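Re: that backbone. Tokens:
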């Protein structure tokens, strides 16, 4: 298994692990016969060496290849690449190699869009370049993709960073993008993604994700209720030793109400001093109420960042607008909320904390 940075915390002799992930999503412009799934496992393994992690499990649906990694997950479909990695991994260092394989092996010559995002790290100083600060990350991304836009949302300690090629709606750049999209023939298929990035979780729940408590990953999946969050998924789960958990879910072929490109992914760092859980899915629902309620009930965080990206024609567009109203979510009140209208996407960011009891 790849080298893992687990640093002893002097306070209580507990291990520190940076659960916060860096997430990069690259969409390529559709091209005849082009498919990222032509890239071989060996080629992905070489890419992941640059990132400092490795593949530990694989599952797939008709549309998505899903890899569980030693540090989080990778999803590969015809024209979309998603890499989400935690710890002190270096995902932006592999972008050059991914673009090369996309061109040489998969037949993709043009990048249509890019999203790079992450929450603020618990220990930013422990990260390796370029991840030691957002400016360096943006500089490297710009060296690959040209003129991207960088945003920082929320308060300093709990902020969420985003880099994208999407211009803000109503700008001259947005008009230009619409023209180029129109000439390429309506590229944007409906798309929506929810992420719930949780910290400071209930220790009783976190115990489930230890070898001491759960015999295997499947037992932890059942006991926590992860298998009920989005029914109809094939689950590929992994329980680390002595603790830690990762899972990918892809829609079962022929699942009712679940399109075959649908995925979910959950990663859990249960150590008490640095507990962290991330949930992400592109499930196409018009309200996220049930999914959010199930996630919060399963993990009981003290605090979380919620982000929703949705194209205007996706069912999730109404969900993003509902969340814009700044609603309380069960036992949680919103501390911050921001809504952004990009050309072709809406984004809702919010920071929630448990009501004081
Ligand atoms: C890979 S998981 C998922 C982390 C994820 N990003 C999250 O949301 O917390 C990390 C957890 O697994 C534990 N772990 C145990 N062995 C590991 C290994 N070889 N590589 C990575 N993590 C390991 C870490 O201590 C941590 O609790």
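Recovered sequence:
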């Amino acid at each position: 298994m790849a080298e893992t940075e687990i640093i002893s915390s002097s306070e209580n002799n507990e291990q520190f692990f940076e659960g916060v992930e860096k997430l990069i999503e690259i969409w390529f412009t559709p091209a005849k016969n082009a498919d990222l799934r032509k890239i071989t496992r060996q080629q992905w393994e070489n890419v992941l060496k640059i990132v400092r992690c490795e593949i530990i499990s694989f599952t797939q649906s008709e549309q998505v290849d899903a890899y569980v990694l030693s540090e989080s997950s990778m999803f590969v479909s015809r024209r979309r690449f998603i890499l989400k990695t935690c710890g002190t991994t270096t995902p932006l260092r592999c972008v050059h190699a991914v673009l090369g394989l996309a061109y040489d092996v998969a037949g993709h010559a043009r990048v249509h869009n890019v999203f790079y995002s992450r929450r603020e790290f618990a220990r930013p100083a422990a990260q390796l370049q370029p991840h030691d600060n957002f400016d360096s990350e943006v500089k490297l991304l710009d060296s690959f993709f040209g003129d991207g836009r960088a945003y920082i949302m929320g308060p300093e300690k709990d902020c969420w960073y985003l880099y994208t090629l999407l211009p803000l709606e109503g700008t001259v750049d947005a008009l230009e993008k619409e023209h180029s999209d129109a000439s390429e023939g309506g590229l944007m298929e409906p798309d929506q993604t929810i992420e719930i990035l949780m910290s400071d979780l209930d220790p009783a729940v976190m115990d489930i994700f230890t070898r001491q408590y759960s015999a295997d990953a499947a037992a932890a999946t059942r006991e926590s209720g992860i298998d009920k969050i989005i029914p109809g998924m094939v689950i590929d789960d992994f329980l680390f030793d002595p603790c830690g958990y990762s899972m990918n879910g892809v829609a079962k072929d022929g699942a009712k109400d679940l399109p075959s490109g649908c995925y979910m992914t959950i990663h859990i760092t249960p150590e008490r001093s640095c507990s962290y859980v991330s949930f992400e899915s592109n499930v196409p629902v018009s309200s996220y109420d049930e999914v959010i309620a199930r996630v919060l009930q399963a993990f009981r965080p003290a605090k979380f960042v919620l982000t929703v990206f949705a194209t205007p024609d996706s069912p999730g567009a109404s969900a993003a607008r509902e969340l814009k109203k700044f609603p309380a979510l069960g036992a949680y009140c919103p501390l911050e909320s921001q809504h952004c209208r990009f050309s072709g996407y809406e984004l809702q960011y919010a920071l929630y904390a448990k009501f004081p009891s």
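Residues 307 and 349 are 5 Å apart (CA to CA). The chain has a mean pLDDT of 92.
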